[in-house]
Amino acid sequence: xxxxxxxxxxxxxxxxxxxxxxxxxxxxxxxxxxxxxxxxxxxxxxxxxxxxxxxxxxxxxxxxxxxxxxxxxxxxxxxxxxxxxxxxxxxxxxxxxxxxxxxxxxxxxxxxxxxxxxxxxxxxxxxxxxxxxxxxxxxxxxxxxxxxxxxxxxxxxxxxxxxxxxxxxxxxxxxxxxxxxxxxxxxxxxxxxxxxxxxxxxxxxxxxxxxxxxxxxxxxxxxxxxxxxxxxxxxxxxxxxxxxxxxxxxxxxxxxxxxxxxxxxxxxxxxxxxxxxxxxxxxxxxxxxxxxxxxxxxxxxxxxxxxxxxxxxxxxxxxxxxxxxxxxxxxxxxxxxxxxxxxxxxxxxxxxxxxxxxxxxxxxxxxxxxxxxxxxxxxxxxxxxxxxxxxxxxxxxxxxxxxxxxxxxxxxxxxxxxxxxxxxxxxxxxxxxxxxxxxxxxxxxxxxxxxxxxxxxxxxxxxxxxxxxxxxxxx
Length: 475
What we know:
475 residues; alpha/beta; Aspartate Aminotransferase, domain 2; Aspartate Aminotransferase, domain 1; 16 helices; globular; Probable glycine dehydrogenase (decarboxylating) subunit 2; PyrdxlP-dep_Trfase_major; pyridoxal phosphate
C-alpha cells in the first residue's frame, strides 16, 4: 500500500521545532493555487511504513547478491562513519580554500593512491558515475586529437561484449561506433580488429578482464595496434575489482580510465546514486582534465588545467562518496587491495567449477571475477529459461544474477560473487542452483510460476517497461 493510501486527514507528527524566525510569505503570483498534496500520518504510522518497505527490499545486507558486472560487494560501515565526520559532512563547496584543507587533502590523497593502483598520472573526482566517467574520458580523447588539428578521427572501436554504456557514451561524444566481434573464446577477434584500423580511429574502449570475466591475453598487442594507428586506449574500469593491486591498466597500454568507486571501492551502489566515476589519465591528457584539481602541500589550492574540457559536474563531484572510497583503500592498504582482488577471483572460480557439471559455461576456462552460464541447453530440454531460474532464486532468498547479458551469450546468467562472500554462503548458493536445475528437469511448471513467496508474483515486464505508472493518481 502506498503512503498516500494510508493517509488520514488531520493526522500528523511533530518532526520540526517551532519556527524561531520571522515568517515571510511569497508574492501572490508565486504562490500555489491549490494545496500541496502530502500524506498525513502519525509518527508511528510513518515509521512502520518505511520499516515495512525495507523488509520488502533485497540487498547485499540481507542475502547473497551475485549481480554480474556490477560488483555488489559489502560496504563497510566504517566508510559511513568517516563520511559522517563534521569536517566532511558539514562543509560547503563555496567555503574559502583555507577552511577546507582537510577535504582537499582527501581529494589529493585518493588521486595519488588511485593513480598508483591504475598506473595513471592524474585523476579527477568530478564525474558522478561510471557512464559519466566514460563520457568524460572520451571528451579527453576528443580534446587531445583536436588540439593536434587531427579532426579526421571520428571512430571509436568497441567489442561486442562491452557494457551497453560504452557505445552510448561514444555516440554522445560525437563518435561513430565500430563494433568488433568476439572470437570463440570470448576475447577480442584480432583479425577483425586489424581490419578496422586506420587514421580515422580516435580510440578503443575496452575493459580487461572483459564482460564475460576473461582476461585478454592479447592485451598488449591490442593497445599497441591502437597506438600505432594514432588512436588512444580507454579502459572501462567496471571490472577493476578483478585486477586491482595485481596488474595496472596503465601498464597494459591504456591512456585513460574511469573507475566506479561504487563498485570496486565499496561505496553505496544503486538506487540512482550517489555514485562516483572518477577519471584518471596519462600525462598526455592531463591538461584537458575537468576543473578543478588539487595541488600544493602545506597550502593546498585548486587549479584548472590549461586546456580543460570544463566542468563535468558542479564543484568537486560526490565528495562524501570519495571519502568512503578513500577509507576503504586506507583500511585495506597495500596488502589488502590485492588480497581482496584474489579472493574475488577465487570465489568466482569456485562457484564456476562447482556448477559446470550441470550448467553450460559460456566459456569453460579459468575466469576472473565473474563467469557466464548459458541456459540455452536447459531451455531446449525443459522449457525452463534463464528468467525462470532467476525468478526462482528469489524464492530461495537470493538476489538473481545479471540476466541476458552479455548479448553474445544466449539465455545468459552472469554471476559475480565478489570477495566479501564466505565459502559457506557460496556453498549454499551452489546448492540452490543445483536444486533448481534438477527441479527444472522434474517439474518445470513450478519454475515458470516463480516467484511465489515475494510481495508480488511474476510481473509483466514488457508492460511495465512500456506502460510504466510513475505517479500516484489522486481520487
